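Subgroup meeting minutes
Present: P.N., E.W., G.H.
Scribe: E.W.

1. P.N. recapped why we're keeping a running log of single-chain structure predictions: easier to compare across weeks, and new members can see raw inputs and outputs side by side.
2. G.H. added today's entry (603 aa).
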Amino acid sequence: MKGSCRLEGTLVKKYGCRSYKDKVGGRYRQHIRRGLAPDVATGEKREIGRVFLEVANDIVWEWDMANNRLLFGERCREGLHIRNEYDGFEEFAALIPQEDQELVRSALSECLARQSGMLTFECRIMTSQGLKWVTMRGKAVFASGGKPLWLAGTVTDMTHGKMQEEAIRYLTYFDVVTGLPNRISLQETLHLVLREKRDRGAILYFDVDKFKAINDTLGVSLGDNILYMVAEMLRERMGSRHFLAKVGDDEFVILLHDISDRPSVQNYAKHILACFAEPLKVGNRSIRIAISVGIALLPEDGTTMETLIKHAELALSRAKGQPDNRIAFFEQSMADEAYRKLVLEEDLRHALNNDELLLYYQPIVDCVTGRVSGFEALLRWNSPQLGMVSPLQFIRLAEETGLIIPIGLWVLQEGCAFLARLYRAGYVDMLLSVNVSIIQLLQSDFVESMWAIVRDAGIPPEHIAFEITEGLLMETFEANSEKLRLLRQRGMKIHLDDFGTGYSSLKYLQNLPVDLVKIDKSFIDELEGNEHTVPLVDSIIALVHRLGLQTVAEGVETGLQHSRLACFGCDRIQGYLISRPMPEEQVLPFLKEYKPRQDNSST
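Output recorded in log:
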């Protein structure tokens, strides 16, 4: 070796041409110089080479196979944190993890065997800063007899990119809160099981009941802690042969292998649920949770991944609706019902856009004078295919699908238009009450959207009342009572519907932003034939009055009920005794012909 010089961070050795091999190697080194810096003596071209390397952000390497020296550019010290010179490839290979070495050696052998001269591989190397991912590219030069003389090229640090890839892969296939495989992982695993027809099994679809309420009241951080604890408890109980995934906000799935008969699967599900019998200790809190599980058997309940998961979800919905038994197996009737709901949902969407919805109006009268004081607007659906559809059949579906939002806006708009027509007919002091779903109330723009409709219709706000079901209001009291106060501040009325069904406490009733309480029909029915109910209704009316609120009795059907309510001081009544709900075209004739009842029945 006669000397050496540094070329753009690359240590280039100069050897004497003592053999044909040295001459070829020398020519190859000149070729490298031409590619990176064509003339070392020319400063301008040397600068071009330096800039090229910096822009490329790569590190140059060369392997002199004749002298078995592997050399890296100086930047390898600061970039890769490795030495820049090794006694041959074997010494460098010691930095490569064992599991990567076969790939590297295979790529190297293929390059030299094919004499194509091109080499590319990815591997990890152990550096003073830990493992790094690199891509090595190079070109080989061979003697005329085919013997390899040189390999030279670049090495690129891929660590940052690989870390990003790993992070993306983790987010794609794993849940960040629990570390469990996610829905995509489950789908791929289940697809593989079905494709290979490995075994029989079952899908157990778990759900933490009312988890949203926990999150809303105790906070997301504590909710995440609960989910992590649930995941750990499932992992400990499920057994090593099975697969566990988190597939939703509060939903988990266990894929059972080699267990598919109902008794065994049911016992397994009970075994899992038993671990949630005791409250969870989260910090200084003790929180009791309930878990429901829906089960689909494989292959009886489906032969595709999508079908099995959907059937397990349907079974879960059934389990959540039966509090005494939180385990449900899939049955075909569930799928049939789901299909009917799907068809009904599409029909309901069509109804909203094609004027199939309409309002019926039931009069509300003064309990003593019998004067009509207003109407309750009741939604109806006149379907060309189904006929007149009961609200019991579609209101809950509308809430589940979110259709209740546009439907609710339409109801108020149509109700305001109805009031305006009554005004023009001379009935200017009528109150219209419309029912409000809790789904509507939860919307952030609920107050403004309701107020905008009333304002734009030119209706005095004090002639509009919103009926809120007692039970639903109690469940979301803190979050939504302020919205009701804002409506009252703008002049609109709030009526508490179905009072007496078992939700309210006196404390809540005292603080509720309501103007009127509607006594549930179940109490009114008992005014005849159950003498124990008579003093109870009397007490309810007296209590409501002491709180400064008015009362309406719902479902009044007989003269005796009317008389007793009048005796108790009830303000208004509503029911078949006065009139069934009627379409708008019957309202004006009713108002013109209606004569207040003169009921002399004894109490």
